[in-house]
Amino acid sequence: MDAPRDYLSGKIVSFASSIDRFFGGDRHYQESNQSVFQLDLTRVAGFNGNRKFDLAARLNLRLPVTEGRLHLLIETDPEKNITSEPTPAQGQTVLRNQVVAPSSVALAARYETAAANVWHFSTDAGLKFPIPIKPFVRARGSFSAPMGEWRLKAAESVYWFNTIGVGETSQFDLERFISEPALFRATSTATWLNDKQNFDLRQDLSIYHTLNDRTALLYQASVIGVSNPQYQVTDYVVQMLYRYRMHREWLFFELSPQLHFPRVMNYQSSPALSMRLEALFDESR
Predict the structure, then answer these.
(1) pTM for this one?
(2) Which of the following CATH numbers is that of domain 2-282: 3.40.80.10, 2.60.40.740, 2.40.160.40, 3.40.630.30?
(3) What ranges make up the beta strands (E) of the chain?
């Protein structure tokens, strides 16, 4: 049974990695030992929309002659990258169609070790600009293991930022290869911040569907909640994301219609639409 199990496990790992690379997700940015540059221009309309274009960028540069263990990182607003699902800003009054630049830029050094498709560990130390310069530290570890026709992946991050204090994020992925063009992934995420004394909780059920080498779809249902002052659901979300490779191997466009059922609106349906233009470069593109 070892040979069929190893073959199936390899198929799951290979397809999941290709999906994460195509979607330019946080998994690819954090765990790829290649140099990665990501530039995003995002607009959210409807519920939770901020009526502006958000500009964000991050660079993970593998340094030569270090066997891939040392990296240089440049990120905008690094504390917003503590989970793979950043929360859109709320309550801001800006001009329609204005492009808003990031409020801070960070420069960091990373040391990482990894065993291919099994475990990965990295630790970062950096400085956040503008003046006054503020230091921050992060560490992240992940481990994956096959479970029959499934793959379990666990990741743990701890960090300290002057803006949000000490925190940690735990994430568990359970993946199953459905067929050649489709992957199912269940993701459970819990983020704890010392300053808030609260867990932010999220459960995602996702199907990634590759149509061809230029187009892919994501179908996702999510439950979002908090633990303080009591455990309660703050939002239910159903969304579809269409991602299209516009030019060569690096320019992408995303369109995501969403339906929210937020607690602040007594769980009444609230539509939203997210649009993103992304430039994504790595050594495979």
Answers:
(1) 0.84
(2) 2.40.160.40
(3) 36-46, 53-62, 70-76, 99-100, 105-115, 119-129, 134-147, 150-161, 165-179, 182-193, 198-210, 215-226, 232-247, 251-262, 270-282
